[in-house]
Design brief:
This protein has 131 residues and is mainly alpha-helical. It has one domain. It contains five helices and no strands. The longest helix has 27 residues. The protein starts with a helix and ends with a helix.
């Protein structure tokens, strides 16, 4: 029986606030992706050109799988949460950049919150592993 820190912490339960805050952000992200695909001009004023539809759909096919995997890993308590949190957080950082480049303050605010929660959770879980 190996009783190393990494083995103990890899199976340690995820604190409730970390789990629920990440599930909430993942569900909100997926919901916004679906809503934006259904009506692209709902969040950004102006006409929806075919290229806008393309980019909204690209956002959808990225947001839904990341959100589903994150919620799935948390729900099943399977290993691999930290890499999934890093991917989800970095995707949110990308959304912050895109929102800033296109003067979309709501997108910047929401994605910043998502990035802080996902990346902050990964960092906290890593600190807990090393403790």
């Amino acid at each position: 029986m190996n009783d190393s820190k990494s083995e103990r912490s890899a199976t340690a339960p995820v604190p409730g606030v970390i789990a629920w805050s990440n599930v909430l952000i993942a569900v909100i992200t997926a919901a916004f992706a679906v809503l934006a695909t259904a009506s692209p001009t709902q969040f950004v004023p102006g006409e929806a050109a075919p290229l806008v539809d393309f980019y909204v759909q690209a956002y959808l096919v990225r947001a839904l799988p990341i959100s589903a995997v994150l919620v799935g890993v948390l729900a099943t308590k399977r290993p691999g949460l930290q890499p999934v949190l890093l991917v989800a957080g970095l995707a949110q950082v990308g959304d912050v950049i895109v929102g800033a480049l296109h003067a979309q303050p709501v997108m910047v605010a929401g994605a910043t919150l998502g990035a802080v929660i996902h990346l902050g959770s990964a960092w906290l879980l890593r600190r807990k592993q090393l403790a």
